[in-house]
């Protein structure tokens, strides 16, 4: 593998800024962030196996972030498989979160925002990631979306073969000829296809009711994380989970409520909790409303009165007297 970056080769304290610049100006723009920029340490090595690009990243606690703006700026339409080598790595994409240890796998996609968290709360991490043009996987994008941001087994079966191949190939790269690299790229692509097909087949074998419950749990977790967003509408929720709005409404048919009403109830419950909290007694009511996605104070007051029988200010006063 050839060296792309080393914090040992730049001025002390400037490693994060240099690597961030390298990433933001690449064909696949991302940001490199760290809680302690002055202490940031990293090494990046790369190996091209024909159409498959393998990168080894070793870094102190940090994040690699691809925002919606960076997706719009440039999208090379890549699918990427992530293999932690040391420490723990968190991946967030498509409304899902996975925390990976060594010999686990995860898939992410350049066409959607994502976050990679290296050794959150730890001392550092190392990982391999392999980029491949999505078109070469010969799998519908809609099916691949089901695997984004989920932990996949990289210790046994075809997943184990892929992790062994990628780690072994990276370790022995100094001995490869140009022809070797092309052949190894074909093997890497075939193994990645096999891993993805294996997991998609397994998902297809799960009963529809189990799929429905799993999807509902993902949607509920997504809503809870994003209650503060005023734009959290049924359309936004459906788009984040790559389903139609009508499909989303069908998922809620057995709950005797609509999606919008359920989201509003979750927001109101959070606001009521804050209004009853003595520690938040000096926070203006309209700030609490905005905190939970209500930009219009009169709308919040009407909704709160309808749900709890009194306006929010009166509820706060009555809670303080208990």
UniProtKB/TrEMBL annotation:
| Keyword Phosphoprotein attributed | no
Q: Which UniProt keywords apply?
A: DNA-binding, Transcription, Transcription regulation
The answer, when asked if Transcription regulation is one of the entry's keywords, is yes
A Pfam family annotated for this UniProt entry: AraC_binding_2
List the PROSITE patterns.
HTH_ARAC_FAMILY_2
**InterPro entries attached to this UniProt entry:** AraC-bd_2, AraC_XylS_family_regulators, Homeodomain-like_sf, HTH_AraC, Tscrpt_reg_AraC-type_HTH
Q: A GO molecular function for this record?
A: DNA-binding transcription factor activity
Q: Which residues form the HTH araC/xylS-type domain?
A: 217-318
PANTHER family given in the database record: ARAC SUBFAMILY (PTHR46796:SF6), HTH-TYPE TRANSCRIPTIONAL ACTIVATOR RHAS-RELATED (PTHR46796)
What protein name does the entry list? Helix-turn-helix domain-containing protein
- In its UniProt entry, the species of origin is given as Streptomyces odorifer
